[in-house]
Structure prediction request, 448 residues.
Amino acid sequence: MTKSEANPFKIAQQQLDNVAMRLNLKKGIHEFLRNPRRELSVNFPVRMDSGEIKVFTGYRVQHNQARGPCKGGIRYHWNVSLDEVRALAMWMTWKCAVVNIPYGGAKGGVICNPKEMSERELERLTRRFTTEISIIIGPERDIPAPDVYTNAQTMAWIMDTYSSIKGYSVPGVVTGKPIHIGGSLGRNEATARGCMFTIREALKHFDHKVIPPEKWQPECEIGEIEGDICDGDEGTGYKIDNATVAIQGFGNAGSISAALLSAKGAKIIAVSDSKGGVANKEGLNIPQLIEHKSKTGSVIGFEGANDNLESKGVLELECDVLVPAALENQITDENADNVKAKIVAEAANGPTTPEADKILHEKNIFLIPDILANAGGVTVSYFEWVQGLQQFFWSERDVNVQLREIMTKAFHEVLDISLKEEVDMRTGAYMVAVRRVADAIMHRGIFP
Prediction:
């Protein structure tokens, strides 16, 4: 697949096709899973601050509901396309299945440039888009969440608009909400924290500490937890001190990954955002860098760096761990041979093309696929949904303990399949996920 042909939906279908053959998936089930179950495209007007009426295009795609309600974020970006949303919805199906939470996959997006819009314009866009897609979302049907350039405030607007349509408060229609209207503690950091857990397990694997799933046990007891997070370090002495890390993308997932890994002793040697990157072989001061980005809007110009890079230049640095935390198709057949990391942990969705996958595998680079590495966000979204249904809210420590157990167990299930079947981790993750979804379809049956 050439760069011009790097269509995310074709990539997602190709990934499924490769695994379907290994699983001997029935032809009808395979074809059913290759395409979304439901797609909604909407064109809607929004009144801008100038008084001008502008028409925006948005999408909501539901890939599969065999294992439960659909789940997936809504992104605001100028490059949103229907095929991108289709791919992301499919990846969400596999992501939910690989960590074994009872959701199917969905995704949404609006073609816009939120960087050029005021908060009032974004609110009007969000409320009108919610109205347009309200016919297919709901707490028992399809639950949106934050994604690229959307946040807790966006979710609050969606919840309020949907509740106004229904005539009563429906907090379960979205996750990733502000805490005071039913959000969950730990949700904002969940994607990065889940990624950190998988990175640590991968580093253990390199230290020959492979744990079969049937023997997996939490590494700490509740009584051993200090503070608000159980990392498994207590009682084991295992840390990630001095592991060198490069991170592409310094939004929510990238910046929080940097902060969490740095706090555990890793050395963050380079980061980048859409405007460029900065590096320091001795390690960047992440709290200062986060403050710099908050003030200036970019990592560029950070005084604690001694080298400047292009955004994609971070991908080619020599390091122990590379974390792509930006957008799709960043590691391709054009630059994969230049990747020098020992471990690639995909905090972003779809950052590696199938051709690049093969190159990384041939180079013996250990890749933690996106449907596993960044599944922490949807896992804690599930926790938020459960808490809301029960109207019983957990402590942040409880959230993080449960997240750690799910992410660690999923990692070792995938690793076990990868080793037994002699396949790369992405193929292993897909084999776990696709089999679970296919089994759900077969057990439910085809109606009528």
In short: The domain at 190-374 is CATH 3.40.50.720 (Rossmann fold). The CA atoms of residues 152 and 178 lie 5 Å apart.
